[in-house]
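The step that takes the researchers longest sounds almost clerical: writing a folded protein down as plain text. Below is the pair of lines this work produces for a single protein:

——
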Amino acid sequence: MLTTTVKALMTYVCPSAARRKNRRDKVTIIGAGSVGVALAYTLLTQKKTSELVLIDKSEEQLQGEHMDMIQGAMFMESPRITSTTDYHKTVDSCVVIITVGAVMQEDENEMDAAKRNAEILKEIVPAIVKESPEAVVVVMTQPVDICSYIVWKLSKFPAHRVIGSGTCLQSANFKSLIAERLGVSPSAVQACIIGEPGQKSIPVWSGVTICGVRLKDINADIGTDEDPEDWNYIHKEIVKNSNCIKSIKGHEALSMAQAMAKITSAILEDTRECMPVSTHIRGCRHKDSDAGDRKDVYLSLPCILSSCGVSYIVRQQLTEKEKNLLQKSADKMNEIQSGLDLTLSEMYANK
């Protein structure tokens, strides 16, 4: 039966009743910095939303960005654009994207960065919950897996409605570089990177296919240290390029905006596309529901995105090495989370 295949293929996350059709396409972006503004322009120029709200603490910054966007609005079918410091203007947003956060310093560890951003998110999340209690929240704040977890805990939203940008951009680059080396279109490549973004991310070489042909069946050592063709240089190149861009510009605003526009579009248009985003898992439950620990963590896995956020998590057939690396990341996330104080003060709780 088809139902048996579906259950074997995907972990069910979102109740069918939670999917909503004929919704408004209002999008709120929190943070008018380089990333937030790049995302706003991308969503508007791609005509993904007819109503966009940009919110920030700095009225001067908002004024300048708002005037700039309004000047170009006539070329974008005149969408409704609001720039404000007032969260009430975000009311009934379909998607809320959090880009604001303290920048992680070179000499700072993830625990310290998470603690600083937890304090920022404590101020933001209660306002989101109050004004848009049915929204899907997409987190870009770094470290994204920890911050997605923080938003989930603070909001008390169902886990399927809080997701992080995760490894979506890395996975797109992974497909592109594999396609380039083979001389084919990226559309012919199925490949993804999972786990946590950056150097510790996990390229799933065991699942890379070209038009259905698994590369591991051709080259059993692909992506390993024993690979005579050194395919794993692709993953190293992705990490190196990302670090290089950040060291020069301080951010990956333009490329991240493209990735986030794709995620936002999937939610607004209920496309049910599969993308690797940071989502709630317990240990590695997507591999085997009867195995692994029960740590509540966020990590990137291939997810089916719909109007309710994450509908399903795809059950990948990972190698033991890939499973172990994913579990190590889950353990690391859990350790960092255990050191966070996520108690809301009365001031924030009553927002």
Observations:
- The mean pLDDT is 90.
- The radius of gyration is 20 Å.
- Residues 11-166 form a domain with the Rossmann fold fold (CATH 3.40.50.720).
- DSSP finds eleven helices and 15 strands in the chain.
